[in-house]
Design brief:
The structure is a homodimer of 294-residue chains. Chain A is built from 13 helices and six strands. Chain A is mostly helical and 294 residues long. The longest helix of chain A is centred in the middle third of the chain and has 21 residues. The first copy, chain A, binds a DNA duplex (30 and 30 nucleotides) through helix 3, helix 6 and helix 7.
DNA sequence: TATTGCATTTTATAATTATAATATGTAATT
DNA sequence: AATTACATATTATAATTATAAAATGCAATA
């Protein structure tokens, strides 16, 4: 009857933290440091650490705190035995998107209607609806009810989105503040290479989509301008909903990854204008090939 | 104890509708038509019409509905006698922005803290906070409380915003779908001319700011791409908060309006590339001159 | 046939809790 | 000096209403 806890989220955060910092068995995990890192108080961090102790991932020592019980590499395999997984998005959110894309929901719907349909409490429904409104594909009507915008379902919006992405990304790269981040480039190169050398046949659709988005967002982040980055992130969230419904043409992926690598090459060679132009063509090319169910 | 009504809003909408359609005394106001126009049911429209009847703006005829009691031109003067005014934004929203800009609010605040400080109910506070989160200058923390982003207060963000606007607007104008809207151009020309010929001394700061924003949004709307338009609207909402705190240098306005008119001239002469380049310079020029209190 | 007027159903809100979770101050420990 | 352990204070949520408002069906009317 009270709110749900953030500590499962914190548990997942700690695991991720340990992994990305490649920590070794025996290293100390100071409570306040973790709390600051995740922007919460020590309370939920302690709850999370207690949980991790029962999972055998950390060890508690009286008056000294918690210490990692195994190397970061082993943590990953130990992880799935417990159930802590961040549920960063309510499945309800996706169901609404899917049902709208499948034509199962009218353009106008009332809150009570949705509550009955999905059998959820109003508070939970409203959370999803607010998130959706923030993303701009539904809006609250002045009286009762909510309305879907055409953002998700119209061919025209779909194409406008590609134009917007192509322009924003190209221009971001041309900004005087653009500064390639060596470390990020190295990581991106590794991911794209793995994807091109076989990953395109074995990775899940979600993994492929995520890798692609992260590549593009990494490039825009190099512009050091948060408005460009926010704009791209915002439109990528939308894309995720729409393109999940498009069958991935895996045969195109080697070409896509090699283009990604080519962009990295051009930037690193200081040929920024060429890179930006190529990036533009790369994005617009993708729009011409895919066809959404509309 | 129940929700507040939308009918005052509808009342204002009807007045605006009558005005922009330049309706004459005696014209019929069909209930369903108004309901459709404002996306509500007949119920709040009827409530609004009843209100307008008591104000003497419309007349009811039994079984025939409501009819305008005076020409649209007269409606405007009759309007202020009643109290119906749309309150499209909760003043609380602005108070939060002001208090943050004035340094009266810490970077982190709890909901209860804000409720006590402003003496408002949680529901009302949350509405403003959600709106603010949507605009991106505050965010909910994972545990308790909310945090301000630096969007409002940092010089760097301020400058990034100008770069973003300049790029988006220029690129919007260069899109193949860009199509100047004659009617809108005519209106914009009238407004900018009025502002340049004396309005800059007498108009209120809010009016000047609104005219400026509408000019730029009108230009971007001609691109026929909603993503570009949304991006500009989004950043203009932010600008409104920040720039209200900057003293307007009215001596610059004649120059600004003449630049606006010059842009319209170039577009109408078909010199789009020049217009876009000039627009870019125009926006970046403004950023160099103004200095926000940061 | 389109629209109103009215009665009825449906909807969403604002206020009010109980309660679990988060935040935090401080003495004890290393 | 930094950190933990624990006690206490503070915070936000989820559930539950009562109620006004919005939506809607339909007979009456123009």
């Amino acid at each position: 009857m009270a709110r749900q806890s953030v500590s499962p989220q914190i548990t997942a955060n700690i695991l991720e933290f340990v992994k990305t910092n490649e920590m070794r068995a025996g290293e100390h995990l100071p409570c306040q440091m973790l709390a600051d890192a995740f922007r919460v108080s020590r309370a939920p961090v302690n709850a999370a650490l207690k949980k991790l102790e029962t999972m055998g991932i950390v060890r508690a020592e009286p008056n000294r705190g918690y210490f990692l019980a195994m190397d970061a590499a082993k943590v990953e395999t130990a992880k799935p035995e417990g159930e802590p997984q961040r549920e960063e998005e309510d499945p309800l959110y996706f169901r609404i998107a899917e049902d709208r894309l499948a034509g199962k929901l009218d353009e106008r719907v009332s809150e009570n209607e949705l509550m009955r349909l999905y059998d959820v409490a109003r508070s939970r429904l409203l959370k999803s609806l607010h998130r959706i409104a923030e993303e701009g594909w539904m809006e609250r009507l002045p009286g009762n009810g909510w309305a879907f915008r055409e953002t998700l379902t119209s061919r025209k919006s779909y194409e406008e989105g590609y134009v917007f992405r192509a322009v924003i990304e190209q221009q971001a790269m041309l900004l005087p503040t653009f500064q390639p981040n060596e470390e990020e480039f190295r990581k991106a190169r590794a991911v794209q290479t793995a994807l091109g050398e076989g990953g395109y046949e074995t990775w899940s659709r979600a993994e492929i989509f995520k890798a692609n988005n992260e590549f593009h967002e990494m490039l825009v982040a190099c512009s050091q301008n948060d408005f460009f980055l926010d704009a791209i992130k915002r439109i990528n969230r939308l894309r995720r909903l729409i393109e999940y419904h498009i069958t991935i043409d895996r045969s195109r992926l080697p070409r896509q990854t090699s283009e990604h690598l080519h962009i990295l090459d051009l930037v690193e060679a200081g040929r920024r204008t060429e890179a930006a132009a190529f990036l533009y063509t790369h994005i617009m090319g993708a729009s011409r090939i895919k066809t959404p169910r509309v």
